Amino acid sequence: MHAILASPTIMQRPEFGMYAENTDAMDLFVLATLACLFLMFGFFAGCGWAIWRRTTKPEPHMQLIMELEEDEAATHQQSPTPKPADEPAPWERQSDWWKK
């Protein structure tokens, strides 16, 4: 019976020098800090899991968009149409437009 009562250390107060008036408050502060820490770890783990799940199993409309982008990129890589370097694009101005 004596060993059973010795296990809950929270209920036992040291007899000399280790207990103060605010020891209970300090213990609660440590427990609250640990609870906040574990809550933050859980939040970050949940966010990481959500990001991982979105990349491995996207929604159908997002999967279609990603497939279309991949197809478009593949067609551009197969048939590139290089433009001559001296011919400007239709929206570009002359290089000395500011001198006029």
Topology, pairings included?
Blueprint: H1 2-6, H2 23-56, H3 60-78
Give a brief description:
58% of the residues lie in helices and 0% in strands. The protein has 100 residues and is mostly helical.
Could you explain how this protein is built, in words?
It contains 3 helices and no strands. It is mainly α and 100 residues long. It is elongated. The relative contact order is 0.04. The mean pLDDT is 80.
Which regions have little confidence, pLDDT < 50, spanning 5+ residues?
Answer: none
Shape: elongated
Q: Could you give a short account of the major beta sheet?
A: none
Radius of gyration: 34 Å
Q: What fraction of residues sit in β-strands? A: under 5%
End-to-end Cα distance: 102 Å
Which bin fits the share of residues in helices? 55-70%
This entry's quaternary arrangement is single chain
Instruction: Give the helix tally.
Output: 3
Average pLDDT, to the nearest integer? 80
Order of helices and strands: HHH
Tell me the number of strands: 0
Q: Which secondary-structure class do the elements indicate?
A: mainly alpha
Keywords:
mainly alpha; 100 residues; 58% helix; 3 helices
